[in-house]
Amino acid sequence: MNKNGGERALTITTKNSPFSIEDTEPLLPWLSSFGQSEGGGVSRLLYTPSWLEAQLALKQKMEQSGLHTYFDSVGNLFGRLEGKQDTVTILTGSHIDSVINGGKYDGTYGIIASFLAAQLVYQKYGKPKKNIEVVSLCEEEGSRFPLTFWGSGNITGKYSITDANNIHDANSVSLRTAMNEADFNPEHYQSPVRKDLEAFIELHVEQGIILDRTRTSLGIVDSIVGQRRFTVQISGESNHAGTTPMSYRKDSLYFASKYIYFLTNKAMKLDQDLVITAGKMNVMPNTPNVIPGNAEFTLDIRHHDEAVLETFCNEARHTLDQMAKELTMCAKMSKWLDIKPVPMNTPLTALATKIAKEQQISYRKLMSGAGHDAQVFGEYCPTALLFVPSKDGISHSPKEFTNKADLENGVRILTEFLYQLAY
Amino acid sequence: MNKNGGERALTITTKNSPFSIEDTEPLLPWLSSFGQSEGGGVSRLLYTPSWLEAQLALKQKMEQSGLHTYFDSVGNLFGRLEGKQDTVTILTGSHIDSVINGGKYDGTYGIIASFLAAQLVYQKYGKPKKNIEVVSLCEEEGSRFPLTFWGSGNITGKYSITDANNIHDANSVSLRTAMNEADFNPEHYQSPVRKDLEAFIELHVEQGIILDRTRTSLGIVDSIVGQRRFTVQISGESNHAGTTPMSYRKDSLYFASKYIYFLTNKAMKLDQDLVITAGKMNVMPNTPNVIPGNAEFTLDIRHHDEAVLETFCNEARHTLDQMAKELTMCAKMSKWLDIKPVPMNTPLTALATKIAKEQQISYRKLMSGAGHDAQVFGEYCPTALLFVPSKDGISHSPKEFTNKADLENGVRILTEFLYQLAY
């Protein structure tokens, strides 16, 4: 397959130009048709045929609408609106890959919105001063390979081709082989690191419930949370459920229950932005008439402030030790993930606020509890992350939904954003 | 294989008679050698070759020591010391079957002790007034077939041969086929229900930790606990661990933790004889970064007083409903086991107490938190259940251990018991 798309006949059913804000909603099912299953879910994993088909269809649409297009070495697709000064670039976009059986909005919406905003700003104001580039990032989800942010990571220098060695998918296909099969030959890799980025703006569906619950059209992200993950192991004593008096027991599940109850309450009282989750729990021997000798569970702890995170995690460890002493059992807490919070650029979030006010679009500041490409760009160049609502907070599901008005408000905001930054 | 044992050469290494109290300890490894694995564990499942071998070896030993032996239709083995009046019978014994990879004491000790007590009382006092029978009950554990107390159940009329229909082991061998293979032909079944039983006395290892912890030689069981088992299902909402604020969550594991913590505390305060165990817990989807939407766990609740059991179980249900309302989640509690408490015979436990005092053997009253054949007999005829200590409360394990002094004290008590009842 040729990545210039010349040999492929792609069914493109929507019009080519000029585009209007009304095209936002129809373009979503169009782009989601690549990799869509009969049940309506979308599976578009990095370097698979449906992924490549989507990128090539987008490329063709960008070209037909007047953007100059190109792929970088890892398959990030760019659509460029050349600036008059051609010195720095305002980059906007999101990721084209999906989770397995995901929805039509996650990632896809940010690409469509960026594409439309570039069209609309050009229609209204002509050629910009600075370059505007729309990007369809090759990978963010980590659904095929045990690695995330392959797209933004290559643009920002977090990753390079050497990181593709020794990474394999579930069928033992290496990342290098998969790249090559999609016609991105690792041997021809040239660093896609961009030195010309003045800002990156990502528009994304919230994947959370706050905007929907509060009937707010726009979320302006202050920061992307840091997260730490732990496994807690409790060792008590397996014993007969009938013959062991309560006072003689070392019941690991009782310990785990007490701990989860107290720690969750503590988190709820401490700070409304702190979230903690015991998501995975396994009990041994897991038999109705045996006191559980061992319990193991995970803790996922997130906050946008590294100091709060650090303090709370220390307290979590201290509480565990105290409880272990009190209940005369052993407990161990091991950290296996530690991602620092990434603040978004303050002038950019201020600009987003100003635009939302001017356009009388309801907005609120929030943090992102989920990871996004914006967190990779946020450590590299001034970055803004904007959300539109997700109905019932649903994401990574064919049930993802955002209504027409919110989708279009997002494009309006982004259009003005590009004007303010690039003209 | 012929159940009269005539065709089998059994290696019997201990002497045949006269027996003394000193034989208690050596007879245990002898009987446990049938069905013993290289690792020292004992697996002697109902109607298997090792089970039959053990019963036949016992039969031979009983005969050589002067007892009249016979099997009933389901394979309970009896050794009879004929009384002068030959009207009623004092029955004593325990079960010959074991769990998979069990120890040398569970069941086996009660048979050996009964055999020796019958020898010793005869040596000392001659022929009894009433019949004394030693019984090696065919099955109690339920380790091969999904049914327990097959031995005592047939003697007391709880079961008959029709209950053997449609019961199969893990290899799809029916209970009827297994009986037949051990030469107990179900077609020749004659009811083993006994109308002549004046008392049943079972001596058993505690399988709990109370006697060992309190350094007591003898446990005199007041009653065998009733037990109820429930499955509790909690339905919340699976959601993103990062993007769902704490106040919006319906976290089923938080609910389960809170409930287990509170209910366990309530039980501990209410009554020291009440035991409750959440032994099995499964959480869905059981993923570190997803709020658990569903949690399911079991509750095993035991007490010797049906009224306490009833009140506490009602309270458990009420607390669950209250918490479900408070946390706006759904919770369901389904009962799948309900065994009533069985009190032991008061004059018999008084007699045991009197004997222990006279013999200056340390004793304490306790309840049995585990099930025993004595609970089946307890609903049929006057029954006593006596315990000797289990080191560290260990049972159903090759590590089961009871020291020589305690083993012998049990035999002494039982000998006197038989004298008091049968002479």
Automatic annotation (TrEMBL), chains A, B:
Keywords: Hydrolase, Metal-binding, Zinc. Zn(2+) 1 binds at residues 95, 106, 204. SUPFAM superfamilies: Bacterial exopeptidase dimerisation domain, Zn-dependent exopeptidases. Transmembrane segments: none annotated. Its EC number is 3.5.3.9. Belongs to the peptidase M20 family. Zn(2+) 2 binds at residues 106, 141, 396. Its cofactor is Zn(2+). It is an enzyme of class 3 (hydrolase). Binds 2 Zn(2+) ions per subunit. InterPro entries: Amidase_Cbmase, Bact_exopeptidase_dim_dom, Peptidase_M20. The gene is allC. The keyword Hydrolase applies. One of its GO terms (molecular function) is metal ion binding. It comes from Gracilibacillus oryzae. It holds the Pfam family Peptidase_M20. This is Allantoate deiminase. Allantoate binds at residues 229, 289, 302. PANTHER family: ALLANTOATE AMIDOHYDROLASE (PTHR32494:SF5), ALLANTOATE DEIMINASE-RELATED (PTHR32494).
